[in-house]
Fold these 3 entries.
Entry 1:
Amino acid sequence: MVAQVATTMSFLSELIAAFGGLQAVLVTALCVLAMVMRPKNLPPGPTGLPIVGNVFSLMTNATPVVYTEWSKKYGDVFTVYRGPMMSIVLNGYAAIHEALVKNADVFSSRYSSTASVPPAGIISGTGIVREPYGPKLKEHRKFALVSLRDFGVGKRSLEGKILEETRALQQEMCKHGGQGFCISQMLQNTVSNVICSIVFGRRYEYDDKKFTDLLMAIDRVFSPTSVERLALSFSPLRYIPGVRKGFLDLRKNQVTLVNHVKKRIREHHETFDENDIRDFIDAFLLESKKRQEDENSTFTDEELTMIVLQLFLAGTHTTSVTLRWALLYMILHPAIQEKVQQEIDSVLGPDQDPSMVHRSQMPYTEATLAEVNRLASVAPFSVPHGTSSDTTFRGYNIPQDTFVEVNLWSVHHDPQLWPEPSKFDPTRFLNDAGKFVKRNEVIAFSTGRRICLGEQLARMEIFLIFTSLLRRFTFKLPEGAPKPPEEGVFLGIHSPVPFKLIAEPRN
């Protein structure tokens, strides 16, 4: 306890030095007031310190694991404090399904003060991801889904683009011969070019320096440290010298991405032709033009910037990381890799390209990818939710506009659902007849009304790219290379530890 008090006093001293005396006193007073005025009958939770709450316990890059352990003590619904900000954490499939599906009217909104990626404060639009639940969200989400379908999502026309990018990826891989290489950047290029063709109407070459810089900025935005993530929700941390540098670097990369999207939108304004709608940006501009007489229209350039940014970010990073996990699991489990290849060969033969119609004919491959989604849990948390009204949930009182964290990791690693949850085992998704069995407890794209907008696109890319690569190559570690761990790194998302591989051509 003495050490905790000393740590708290040190933190406050730095805060006062960073803010200036009067400002720090005011902030401290407000924090204390917020802590004193806590609502009654909240879910239980770990004891926090004055002012900073549970901040020090959350200064870890494995927060989903910490929350999963805390749920064993406090239950599937508990309370934590990020500084003075109260957060309700949902763990386990039953609690998450009950909140996001059965009580969707209450738990489908966003917390009003969320300052998370995409960057609040840099542009004023909320887009689809950050928009509270209501008519505007419904309108923009419906428009986005229809537009994505118009540009091929879920259709054979987009399969061709994905396979074209996969062939470009394979050509890049072949340049390395039998030498080990890191596939991370290549996968990002491939996946990003798919979403770029839909959103921007263009693709980028693998050696395009500006595009490489953009992908690096995406990596940085999706890989904040634990302290930087806390600084997003607990603003006083941003002014501490040791935190401020990293926070400003994070913001700089966010600005880089925003400026790139704005540039693409300006170019579309200059070349817009309503008789030739080339991509998502054009479709949005056409809708905006139709509503130009409506002074209440929300189809503005600020909203377009945020929506495109969200599609670009989500359509690049999580899918490419999922594919990296899939290849790593194949390397670590060569018998599973061989079985997947045998199934692909039996269905496609020597000359046929994979298609989504083949997915139902490849139950073992589909089971393997389902197990990748479960075990890797690339997005261990959903985008934070917010309550739209006061509610009573599982006997506890939860106020309106409460920050709600949804711990998807706790579902995918629940030993009651998945015996030996840390073991990679595709047979979890196969019945006695060898047929694929969908498990509702795999919620890699979240669930309920805020389920990921790009789920269908991501599933198309993962299946087509994975089967194409396994059909042509066998993946191994370089001779003498240490075996990579199956445990990943939590930096915003759950990524595998960097590794090199050899792509050995198959006959």
Entry 2:
Amino acid sequence: MKNIISIFIACIIITLVGCSGDSNGHEGEAKTPSGSSIQKGRDYQEVINDFKGKGFENIKTEKLEDLITGWLTKDGEVESVSVDGDKDYSPDVWYSNDVEVVITYHTFSEEEKSDTEPANENSSETDAQSTNDTSAESAQEILTVENNEDFAAVLAVKNEADQIIDEFAKKYAGRTIEFDGYIANMMQHGNYKTRYNILILAGDYGETTFSGPNFQFEDVNIVSDLNLIGSNIPDTIGMGQNLHITAVVEEYNENSGLFLLEPVSTEIR
């Protein structure tokens, strides 16, 4: 049995070495993240991070100053995203990395912002508070265990089918999360030789206790989809590799017990 496992692991490593050639022909290109319909309603800064993570270099934003106090639409909420002029672009499509990406989002007009600000004789104090509030909002854009109690609770659950996992996935669908984890298992996706389903668990490889969901990167290529970053990128990765993961919440599948994520960036630890 041990010999069979050793041969299986060796085959994966050999295949991963070969998959590095999958990036050939895509030099100077970038691949779209989630489709335009998925991006709508997300925070525009998160969408910018997604496209930057995929390698796009010419990213522009356009404001729709149409918000009125009391509307359900949030300040900074994306209305549309176009890639090379196409607002109905599809995910996982290669473009030249310098094509224009335009992210259009809702915000308040300067007049509306002025009307909603409370009067305060000490304007410098008000400005300082506004700056602090803006900084706090920016810190919340990527969810971590430090800034989001819901995410901390999800990573602490002992039952991978706990109801709070499904609740978190629905509440934060489309949001970006960041955490330390490791590759618990990986296998080829269907009949593809260079695409994989990768099981990710929170924490460090070799720990004797486990908590959190069964995260999965589904149908990904090691080179073009995981977006490996950092100063210590190995030639291959496999089971047991510790990672620092930034990814977008997709959905939780109650039947399979898998919490699907879309990788934004993956750093070797």
Entry 3:
Amino acid sequence: MNVIALSGSTVGSKTRTAVEAAASRLKNANPQHDVTVMDLAELQIAFSDGRDYRDYGGDTSRLAEAIMAADALIIGTPVFQASIPGTLKNVFDLLPVNAFRDKTVSIIVTAGSAKHYLVAEQQLKPILSYMKAQIVPTYVFIEEKDFIRDEIINDDIHFRLDRLAEDTLLFAEAYAKIREEKDAAYDF
């Protein structure tokens, strides 16, 4: 299984820390799967201008192709001004509307306070649903107080990241099996 763990911001380090922690758990528990961390802070992503994702070059093409080839994604996002960052929205805008069809997507949100807990529910999940993602129902929300020096210090967050990594694979495997059985029902 091919899994992309995407850190969806060009600034800060907490989201990257959380995404890497989830990806590491996934890799360690399931070394047979290909898990790749991609950080928007390390990529030069073009601004979406309506072209087909295959018409872009460089990092933009590499990111879009990786997402399109993935079986599952872990998307990490910080909350800026009570919303997802524009850089992450730009990634969604680069992709076709069915980009996440038959893909399992799980979510990690980092925020300065508990007041932003529903950003994933009200903003991120509707976009992912519109793009046909199979969304893992629970997500990991991590507050500023759960970090010290770019390290997660809350044991509950560690347990929830373990569960998120496990659920991401379980959901992806279950959906793949359902699709196989459905495809096998046709004689052609």
